[in-house]
Automatic annotation (TrEMBL):
It comes from the Bacteria. It is a multi-pass membrane protein. It comes from Pseudooceanicola antarcticus. The lineage of its organism: Bacteria, Pseudomonadati, Pseudomonadota, Alphaproteobacteria, Rhodobacterales. Signal peptide: none annotated. This is Sulphur transport domain-containing protein.
């Protein structure tokens, strides 16, 4: 499997996520956890809270359209695994989010920035899992 090294676009994307997390915390006192934001859309509650969550999700969805307007082309998305593998991965991630009390954006960006021991442990755990998964897929299974 060939992967591309894209330091400029990766750095820009990281800065945009960091800015969004900083603004959400500064303006609303909220942690930027993507799964919590999306999950909150499914629960009835405060209308203003729901609107904020919907706006964040709309921004995530609108970003590729903005790239199209600026560059004239959509980002290329390649998914080198089967649909069953994606579904199994989604379930595994969902279970991890549930038992880990948050996702990579909540723990990895916001929690680590606050020096949360729980977030540091969660980040180390999912990074170790990612390294192990890549090693197994590339070197043991050969996918």
């Amino acid at each position: 499997m060939i992967t591309e090294f894209t330091p400029l676009t990766s750095a820009l994307g990281g800065m945009m996520v960091g800015l969004a997390a900083t603004l959400l915390m500064a303006l609303h006192g909220r942690i930027f956890g993507a799964t919590g934001i999306v999950g909150g859309l499914l629960r009835p509650g405060d209308r203003n809270d729901w609107m904020m969550r919907a706006a964040l999700l709309a921004g995530m969805v609108a970003a590729p359209t903005l790239l199209l307007v600026l560059t004239g082309k959509m980002p290329q998305i390649q998914v080198p695994v089967s649909t069953p593998a994606i579904l199994i991965g989604g379930v595994v991630v969902g279970v991890g989010v549930f038992f880990g009390g948050g996702c990579t954006s909540g723990h990895g960006i916001c929690g680590n920035a606050r020096f949360s021991r729980r977030s540091i442990a969660a980040t180390l755990t999912f990074m170790a899992g990612a390294f192990l998964s890549v090693f197994v897929m590339r070197h043991l299974i050969g996918a």
